[in-house]
Amino acid sequence: MEALFRDHLAILVQRCAALFEQEQLDAMLIHSGSTKNYFLDDYAPAFKPNPHFVQWMPFLTEHPECWVLIKPGCKPSLYIYSPDDFWHMTATEPADFWSELFDVHLYTDQAAQLKQISINGDVALISENNIELSHLKLKHNPESLMHALHYQRAEKTAWEQRCIREANRIAIKGHRFTRRGFFEGLSEFELHQGYLSATTHLERELPYSNIVGLNEHAAVLHYQYKDRIAPSQHHTLLVDAGAVCHGYVADITRTVSQGSQDFQALLTAMDQAQLALVETIKPGTSFITLHEEMHQKLFSILSNAGIIERAALLDPLDKLSITRTFYPHGLGHLLGIQVHDIGGWQQDSEGLIQAPPVQHPFLRLTRTLTENMVVTIEPGLYFIPLLLDQLKSTPLARHINWELVNELTPWGGIRIEDNVCVTSTGVQNYTRDALNGLN
């Protein structure tokens, strides 16, 4: 890991050198972020650092008011905020291997420390909020630089890939627990608590709030609760939950079911279709095309299951109208420091945007895949009453076996999500590797 991080830092320095020349900059100053109390309270939500800071310093993700300063030809400087405070634990002088790669400064007074940072020329300030420092020529989040940084972040260094693989390995421990807990009849709350224990994560350390949905709750795409009382019957469990390693995240979804051969057949078919789609990924693959291919696979699954009837009479637009009812979201997204890593619609380093097609408005990724991109592949099949009622009011309703749909609706839905890395010749599936003990 040490060698990988050294190489990672060298790559970032190299990228910056090129960008500084292109943008006519003399330095870049990156803020880790600030905390802000809740309204009318003296308590703040869990701190989430600036992702640009994390890319340079993934070992201080819980510390606000820190800075990284990058200047051409110099070792990066790291300013760690360590105030005099008897209420909280504060940062100490680092002794880990990475401290040798930075010019490290501890400071107790933020305003005084910033005044000591002296740089001649133009400085890019990468932070949520602007600051005024009369002795520095700061450019707050310059647009052209931000476009370039966001575009570059899609291709992960070997260090970043290693962190995401490890986050997958950790998350799989939680998913194994929830699968067992489903068959033991645990409640959503108990499944969630067991996931935290299995992954050794605190709630605030999760990359996002776990989705733990039993039965009909599996059809709520971003189901936000955890019932403390278990249902009388466990039909389905959908768990969308991840983990974090040095600031880099896993985002995995698994679905298990019991009690319906028809629903289990759909789950098996979706798993096979998802794996088959992943196997087609290689550099040069259009993510939009992948998403459209998944809709075609889903149409076949629904037709073979008898949910769609008289399929031969449907034209392509009608087919899509039906599959969008059962699969309304996008196929996946970029993954890295952020769960939905930035730049998914960005087509070049200048900031050209390709919005998702009108018929697929929720697609988060429209780029052509390139080597070292890490993305999620997460198709779904859901019985969502709101969308089913809308379909029922159209002429396409006559092509749906509503009796079968009504039988399956208590099972909620299916989502299968893997984290995959595009290689020079194909793809590596971090999630399946972790499931098979290959990480």
Description:
The longest helix is centred in the middle third of the chain and has 26 residues, at 158-183. A hairpin with a 4-residue loop joins strand 13 (418-422) and strand 14 (427-429). It is built from 12 helices and 14 strands. The mean pLDDT is 96. The two termini are 14 Å apart. Helix 8 packs across helix 9 (316-326). The strands form 4 sheets. The protein has a 6-stranded mixed sheet with strand order 4-3-2-1-5-6. With 439 residues, it is α+β, with helices and mostly antiparallel strands.
Protein topology:
Blueprint: H1 2-23, E1 27-31, H2 51-56, E2 67-70, E3 77-81, E4 103-107, H3 110-116, E5 122-126, E6 137-140, H4 143-153, H5 158-183, H6 188-199, E7 211-214, E8 236-245, E9 248-257, H7 261-279, H8 287-304, H9 316-326, E10 374-377, E11 380-382, H10 385-392, H11 402-408, E12 413-415, E13 418-422, E14 427-429, H12 430-435
Parallel strand pairs: 1-5, 3-4, 5-6
Antiparallel strand pairs: 1-2, 2-3, 7-8, 8-9, 10-13, 11-12, 13-14
Helix pairs in contact: 1-5, 5-6, 7-8, 8-9, 9-10
